[in-house]
Amino acid sequence: MPFRIIPVTPFQQNCSLLWCEHTRDAALIDPGGDVAHLLSIVAEEQVNLTKLILTHGHLDHVGGTAELGKRLSLPIEGPHPGDQYWIDQLPIQAAMFGFGAAESFTPTRWLKQGDVVEVGQLRLEVRHCPGHTPGHVILFEPSEKLAFVGDVLFAGSIGRTDFPGGNHAQLLDSIRNQLWSLGDDTRFVPGHGPMSTIGQERATNPFVADRRFG
pTM for the complete prediction? Predict the structure, then answer.
């Protein structure tokens, strides 16, 4: 499954463009901003952008969603409805952090545990992983052993839980119950920073390392 990581916004959030090799249908995961740049990458890869997918409602992950959705008449899938209040506050978030204008929106489809998101012939499994936000979801493509995990887990760290709706114990449960079960050889794209593997984080991540690992 081809994909491309595109850091956007002053927070260098990892927006991901992924596409189906057979149909050339594509999706942007977490289009947080820099819309013109994102569209230039879509054109460069010569793919057909068919939808926007969101892991959670924080500004740096969804700030460009309303603009892209309106401009290209794209459906928006995700996050879980637990993050509606974050999406409703996008204009306030944008003003607080000095971003350009960001509109609130209502997703075309909310996502929940066990759902599947289709991009061409690709099928991304949805897992609900609250803790960083109440409505955070991750997306997993099992044949490629590849996950897009937003701000749940990073290389060497985990998501913040000091924002409204954050819950540290819940985040740790999400990581151990939903991410570890993806398999140690699963690669993941975090919301910020470099890729890693589930096995690497189980072995070395100081916040969630499994001392029984190995």
Answer: 0.97
